[in-house]
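Entry 14. Two folds queued back to back today. First construct below, sequence then structure tokens.
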Amino acid sequence: MNTRFIYVLFACFWVGIAHAQPDSAYYWKGNAVVGSTADFNDPANWWIGSFNSGRTASQSPVSSNNVYFTAAAFTSGTSTITITSNANCKDMIWDNAILTANAPTLSASSSVELYIYGSLDIAPNMNWSVNGNIHFKSNTAGTVQIRTNNKALRMCNFNIELGSGTTLQLVDDLRVENPSTSNNIANRGWISLTSGHFHTNGKRVEADFFSSTSGNNTRRLTMDNSMLVFDGVAWVQYPWRLDFRVQIMRVFRQRVRICV
């Protein structure tokens, strides 16, 4: 075989590996490089490996990529990261050291789907304006977590779609609300448990609606020592809908009776 041909094949192989970047950590470049508004799905906006590594991503984050938003990326005024189309990541981690004066905003319209295959950690000094649907999709056995730092998640649907051996556990209180201020729109402000285990971990949970009516999917809901508040009013009969047995029920405002 021609030596030059082998070299070209070898070079293409390594270029392909570099391009795929399947398990690399992604670090948001920030306003110093990107500008005041930038697209989450534009690979040019991400460093690979570490912040300011000099290695720019060659594709947008995928389900195996952890994404990090460090304080170093937000040093000069506010900025907005816009998710312009459906997006994926593994863990999404926002740095608690981000200053109030530099608070960034993560934004997406109600038509956008955000798929998270790991944990979500929201910083206190950032603004959450993702109005579409968020999907927790991990299939890895064990526990993934969500910390909201008292941020209300104003979105259409908060979907828990985990593997049968995966738990989504709350680190602090969870509040899911309609992107508008009204709570009378039945397709917004939902928490939906489709598969996997949702553990409220003694925290307060608020939403317009809660649903777990997914047929034969393996699901588990642990809500011991939690206060659950579901106060949506719309064409649905109740803001709480289940099709499997539960033992502990503390439901307020609507005083929904659950018959099992």
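Second construct, same run, same settings:
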Amino acid sequence: METTVRQFLLAILILISSSTNALTVEDEIYALQVAREYQIDFMTVTGVNAKKISTLERISHNLYQRIDFLKARVEAGETRYLLVNKSEFYMEVIDNGQIVVREKVIIGEPGRATPEFSDIIKYIVINPYWNVPYNLARKDVIPKINRIRNKFGIDQMYTSIDEGGYRFFNSDMEINPHDIDFSQYTLRSKLPFKVRQDPGSHNSLGLIKFVFPNKYNVYIHDTPRKGLFDRDERRFSSGCVRLQNPINLAAYLLNSGTSDILDMINNPDNSAKWIKIPEPLPIHIVDWTITVTDHGVILD
């Protein structure tokens, strides 16, 4: 029996190495799975196309990742969940096996990668404040303020602070930006204040934020920079997941119409509003580098 299997594998591997696509991808993957079971080093077979073998190995590994993921969902009794696949740059809400929401996403840029983990979405925040994380205030916000000062002058700097909705606090006491010498702070400086951005269309979190409390301080949110969704590869955030059309996700989570969500956003005082989701939704952020579409297999 073992000899027959080995001969079968050798025949398949020779076919894999040929330029004619005599086998389906499923057959090729099956051959590789059996090869691993019988501990055959197929790279030693004469004529094997090493690049194609490597590609098929990646497909096989990815399929196992997905199978393990689906098994875990069944074992947990999850019939609905939100899935962010970083390499695909999309998020999907799965409800009883059906995709009910699908949207483009932006993930973390190199050096600020979005972590892979699972959690539960519990809250929606309409018109959120952005309490700027200390490192982002030091590395992004203050340098941007100083660049505007250096290029356009101090008056334009104060205008940009006002238009951007930035406010500065020492403990609970607000500091007038005119009392801060921003030029003294560099990337390595310790900031003696915290930075907050008021709600509004200028806010970096956009108009909606989805909260699933976690140790990474990562969440899903809207963004005013909609043009970035036109890119094929979308790695521009500081770690959070930006969503192209958050109103659709909010409407699903609250079992509401999109017009109801717009009414909440357009409240007269533009204040932040926290809403507890009636049925919290599990979220899984993964990185499956191979995507299967209607047009075939796409490699990252």
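Quick look at the second one. The helical segments are 2-17, 25-37, 50-76, 134-152, 154-163, 246-254, 258-265. The chain has three domains: 2-68, 78-129+201-299, 131-197.
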